Amino acid sequence: MYLVYADNKGQVYDHPSMYGLARSGDMIVEILEDELIPLPEGATLVGLPSTRPVGMDPDTGEMMPVPGDVQAVGALLPQGFTRLCLPGYVKTDKEYKLPLFGYSAVVWKDGQFYVTARLSDDPEKWNPLNCDPLELKNQVKALRTKYPENRLYEHLSNCALGYECLTASNTFLNRWEGAVPVSYSCNAGCFGCISEQPDDSGFVAPQTRMNFRPRVEEIVEIMLEHLKTPESIISFGQGCEGEPSTQAKLIIEAIREVRRQTDLGYININTNAGLSDHIRGIVDAGLDLMRVSTISALDDHYNAYYKPRGYSLANVEKSLSYASDQGVYTSINYLIFPGVTDREEEIEAMIEFARRTKLRLIQLRNLNIDPESYLQLIPPAKGDIFGMKQAIEIFQQELPDVVIGSYTHVPPAELARVKVRG
């Protein structure tokens, strides 16, 4: 398992003698054979600026930074794959913050690249290679022509064509899970927010947040255009918006109108679920699926990252429990980080949280963050660190009725909520 590095021009090389290493939290660790899979289709190799890769001398076992003008390399994994380790590196500039991506350790083995990752879900639907650029451009033009006054289609066209957001692209391609953003504000100040960062954060938000309040008819047009098959999903709560439940009145009116006209498909919300009363109203209006974003089931860790405004983790749990009790297929968008998610206390707390809220699905999502900044933000480990592979196996063993996946699923027929029109 040879170390992979890049020169200052971004050219990637495999080291002729040094073995590749990884990180778990802030610890440099050896890579285990059962943590490796071939680099998946759709993955991207990137250089990590202001870093130096750390490798191991196979003869002496000594761990050391690679000399010369080089930088560490990480892999950005496609949807459906969960990283197990971070790249092995040290920073050459302690003040530099890496761009907001989820970097995975990569090595060279048996004539090809390997990454520390596991397949958590079927990657086919979310493979960028399955999004034909020409077809997408044609569909964007067609729907913007059909709905020239709909500002949401205008906004989503930039998400699809500019940011290459696959959920936005699906909205135009009328397939799988599509997007319907509604909110320009948020009741949390997430440390790793991808659509809005304070000027002094040191991070650059990779997306621009929407800056208008859509009309109900604009929302309904997108929902009805997308919900044309039994398995289609339309989702509130996208990377280009704030917290969708802050616009609960709009969502409730839109859901009621859509369900008055069609029973097809599933209506989903991606939310922090902090506004329990708003979530209750949205659930009662006819919500089918709810995915709640969380990074931890421990208050101190949760609060450090999300910086909630006017709500607590207890409100999140209340919202999830209510939705589950009303027949909504509930899941969490679990932001995972090797060396943190696999801490003993984190695992125990999340298992109990899942049991109390009757979760159906855990969506493992690689946290996009600068590792050093995140580790300085959150509480230190209190117990053992098991490794991500073992942590996931513990979740599977302790939560046998909970699906461990990576993205939103259509629920099994026996769990589908009965849709009520009118």
TrEMBL record:
Q: Which keywords fit this entry according to its UniProt record?
A: 4Fe-4S, Iron, Iron-sulfur, Metal-binding, S-adenosyl-L-methionine
Q: Which residues form the Radical SAM core domain?
A: 172-401
**Cofactor dependency:** [4Fe-4S] cluster
In terms of InterPro entries, this protein maps to: Aldolase_TIM, Organic_radical-activating, rSAM, rSAM_sf
Q: Which PROSITE patterns match?
A: RADICAL_SAM
Q: Does the keyword Cytoplasm apply?
A: no
Pfam families, per the entry: Radical_SAM
List the PANTHER family: PYRUVATE FORMATE-LYASE 1-ACTIVATING ENZYME, PYRUVATE FORMATE-LYASE-ACTIVATING ENZYME
Q: What is this protein called?
A: Radical SAM protein
Question: What species does this protein belong to?
Answer: Paenibacillus woosongensis
